[in-house]
Amino acid sequence: MYRRVPAPASSQHQTKFGQFENKRSTKTKAMQAARDLNWTPMRELSSGGGVELEAPGGYPFQLKEGDRSSNNGDPVRKVTLASTSLEKSMLFWKDTLGMQEAKSATTSAKCLTFGPGQAQLELYQIDSPVDHSKAFGRIAFSIPRQSLPDIQCTVKERWGEAAILTPLVALDTPGKATVEVVILADPDGHEICFVGDEAFRELSQVDPAAEKLLQEAMEADKSKEWFSKKGIPKPTA
Length: 237
Fold this sequence. Notes:
CATH topology of the largest domain: 2,3-Dihydroxybiphenyl 1,2-Dioxygenase, domain 1
Mean pLDDT: 79
Keywords: Repeat
CATH superfamily of the largest domain: 2,3-Dihydroxybiphenyl 1,2-Dioxygenase, domain 1
Helix content: 25-40%
Oligomer: single chain
Family: Belongs to the glyoxalase I family.
CATH class of the largest domain: Alpha Beta
């Protein structure tokens, strides 16, 4: 079941919400980690079980128990963006980007997805302009690399140069895959990054030695001396 996360009080801000459904063990670990960090605010959800946390910047995230098998094992269920015009937003996300409309629980929102088993994008109607100076971020999708030029061309043709924030570009990572991306803006200025899936998956491989390498780099950067002079303990990864 998909459920909209309540908007913060200042709804004119760019609202982004995350909803996650995890098996009990995963949710319990996340909740325990939040409690260990004295994370506040954290409140119990009145329906469906689970808790709602507030991330830095005021974004609420819900942790709920559920079956991840219906979502290809992906714990992310839905992300919500504010929209000042659902009609314009649907023209962009559905008609231009090709997302499919899904069932929504309210007339003040539209739900979209790129296909079965994919996380949903919810566009939620607000009555005042989205204020990106108060909250900002970027939503990203990985797609076949050969589709990137077509997306850029289509958006430019229908929405103009202003909708192309970063034209198709290759981002080199020394010793790793070169990832190609194009960054767009929807009618409310929400940034959308489309990244070539093949290189992205290669670049996203977990390095089992990553934590060790990070700690070694932190030890070698002489920041420990700076923290010592300030009389505060140096954070660890």
